[in-house]
Amino acid sequence: MAENDSSQEKTEEATPRRREQSREKGQVARSKELGTSAVLMAAAVGFAMTGPSIAKALYNIMEMLFTLDRTQIFDTNALFLIWPVIGQQLAFPMLSFIAILTLMAFLGNIVLGGITFSTKAFMPKTDKMNPINGFKRMFGVQALVELTKGIAKFSVVALSAYFLLSYYFNDILALSRDHLPGNVYHALDLLIWMFIILCSSTIIIVVIDVPFQIWNHNKQLKMTKQEIKDEYKDTEGKPEVKGKVRQMQREMAQRRMMGEVPNADVIVVNPDHYAVAVKYDAMKATAPFVLAKGVDEVAFKIREIAREHEIAIVSAPPLARAIYHTTKIDQEIPEGLFTAVAQVLAYVFQLRQFQKHGGKRPNPIPSEQPIPDELKH
């Protein structure tokens, strides 16, 4: 029982198929803190880049609004005529600022996890509608983690703000003694630097949150040993099915091999257990090669086909075993067997000439062929 329980623990790393299925469901590692920090940093950088232009535009607008002549004061349409000028002054810097924010908001949310789109994520889930499951999520480990992150973010930002205000306190008070427009530019300069430093403090949370989200996502994807076995069966097939497929593949390969036997020059046999079909074709190979081979029933079938097509069958037990164990189908025989095979082929070619034209019958091949010890079986 204990062994069975341990096998159900999610101790195994997720398989590529499990990760792919999770991604199809829209479940990837995400860090909201990374997206938030990216937007804040983009706002700070964008503010630093477009701040002077915005300040200059605001100054021009204020100057325009506070320097009205008598005609403009009593003209009810004067204010409406000023709006196009205001839009023209603020349009480019504000649009640039918004473009930077939009770009970083997009990049910050795809850096971790990439771009995913899943219709399954939009489908309603009954377990999320269950109040009991809702309470479990509210008081679960994930909720505790989010609460801890919230407190940590507040603490980091609050401490950063406190130190910034303490450091720039005298500079902030000195703004009241400055004159326009110098105090405006000075205030913007202070605001930009304080904003950049304050936003940079969120990087501390990101550095902690991103590895945690990756670890937590991998933990949720972990599988039991049984799940891995089931997935293997589903993707690779059940053992009995795979065995049947392999058997069919062997049968097909054997039929192809048997179809090549009639093209052989000679069948070297054991004489009962082994049979090897050998051919020499100088146009295809530099040495004799094997067309078919087999033992027992397959060897019997090779001999049977050879008799039907009047292919010479030569009994050379050591050579038959050596070729069978050292040479694959459509592969040239090893160099160490060249002499022995040459003797067999020479005998076969002489026998064909004798059968066609008569004359002196060729001498039988020697009972012992020259086979190196390392090739004997």
TrEMBL record:
InterPro entries: FlhB (IPR006136), T3SS_substrate_exporter (IPR006135), T3SS_substrate_exporter_C (IPR029025)
Keyword annotations from UniProtKB, A to Z: Bacterial flagellum biogenesis, Bacterial flagellum protein export, Cell membrane, Cell projection, Cilium, Flagellum, Membrane, Protein transport, Transmembrane, Transmembrane helix, Transport
GO BP, sorted A to Z: bacterial-type flagellum assembly; protein secretion
Region (Disordered): 1-31, 357-377
Entries under Gene3D superfamilies matching the protein: 6.10.250.2080, secretion proteins EscU
Membrane as UniProt keyword: yes
SUPFAM superfamilies: EscU C-terminal domain-like
Keyword Acyltransferase: no
UniProt-listed NCBIfam families: flhB
Recorded family membership: Belongs to the type III secretion exporter family.
Name of this protein: Flagellar biosynthetic protein FlhB
Taxonomic lineage: Bacteria, Pseudomonadati, Pseudomonadota, Gammaproteobacteria, Alteromonadales
Gene coding for it: flhB
